[in-house]
């Protein structure tokens, strides 16, 4: 078995550095780390050496939009071409707990769960103290996301429900499962929708959604907009594409909030338009 970690990056080089520090502490080291730099030519200047192979792939923007779906696909293709059989996707903000890689590796090679879509709980960190986060103290700082599953350590919960809870911050699958699902749909460009579509296609194939309690990740703090007004154009475009594919609207909380702020208008036919 060869395990590759895949991280897509645009800025936040300090967050990537802490993720690498977390990988150093892992009970199961990665065999390869693929870093896809989206419109981020300065990345390599900020990276410290690591004791495992690392491949950096540079990817230009799609116009004004970051190609998140394409970046993940290129990361997976690069890893599989290098011989990876287990793919672990970690958002640049996520620091893996020590057992995360081992837990994902075990589930991805187990006879029952080897073709499943594997997800681990992501907990949220407060702003870092003046000296930065202490990796040995993250468990005591992190708070679970109220709307996400948080299976206890040592448990694996296999289900065929709740695919809308899939989140691309931290997930894993075997290369066979990746080919089953077909990767991310690159028609989604920019922010939002591509991971919901990915999970919906997994559900349509009968792929189980499996929550791995030991695959914990800690999400580093960064400022956010609620709703993400800087991504309103991406969200409306990608939500419209999802609706055309699946007959329902994703990201309804954000769409409603945009409408309340006068950023979009709901048309008579139920669609959204007039991004302002």
Which features characterize this protein?
glycosyltransferase activity; transferase; alpha/beta; 9 helices; Nucleotide-diphossugar_trans; 276 residues; eight-stranded mixed sheet
Can you walk me through this structure?
By secondary structure, the chain is α/β, with parallel strands linked by helices. The chain has two domains: 3-219, Alpha-Beta Complex (Spore Coat Polysaccharide Biosynthesis Protein SpsA, Chain A), CATH 3.90.550.10; 229-273, no CATH class. Helices cover 31% and strands 20% of the residues. Strands 3-2-1-4-10-6-11-9 form an eight-stranded mixed sheet, sandwiched between helices. A four-stranded mixed sheet has the order 5-12-7-8. A two-stranded antiparallel ribbon has the order 13-14. Strand 1, helix 1 (13-24) and strand 2 (32-38) form a beta-alpha-beta unit. The chain starts with a strand and ends with a strand. The mean pLDDT is 94.
What is the strand and helix layout of this fold?
Blueprint: E1 3-9, H1 13-24, E2 32-38, H2 43-46, E3 54-59, H3 68-81, E4 86-90, E5 94-96, H4 100-109, E6 117-119, E7 122-124, H5 138-141, E8 143-144, E9 156-159, E10 170-174, H6 175-181, H7 194-204, E11 209-212, E12 217-219, H8 232-246, H9 252-260, E13 265-266, E14 272-273
Parallel strand pairs: 1-2, 1-4, 2-3, 6-11, 7-12
Antiparallel strand pairs: 4-10, 5-12, 6-10, 7-8, 9-11, 13-14
CATH architecture of the largest domain: Alpha-Beta Complex
| CATH level 3 topology of the largest domain | Spore Coat Polysaccharide Biosynthesis Protein SpsA, Chain A
Ends apart, CA distance between termini: 50 Å
Biggest sheet, spatial arrangement of strands: 3-2-1-4-10-6-11-9
Q: Counting H and I runs of at least 4 residues, what is the number of helices?
A: 9
Main sheet characteristics: 8 strands, mixed
Strand content: 15-25%
Number of domains: 2
Number of strands: 14
Q: Which value, in Å, is the CA radius of gyration?
A: 18 Å
SSE order in H/E notation?
A: EHEHEHEEHEEHEEEHHEEHHEE
| Principal-axes shape call | globular
Which class best fits the helix and strand makeup? Answer: alpha/beta
Give the CATH H-level superfamily of the largest domain: Spore Coat Polysaccharide Biosynthesis Protein SpsA, Chain A
Uncertain segments: none
Calculate the mean pLDDT score and round it. Answer: 94
| CATH class group of the largest domain | Alpha Beta
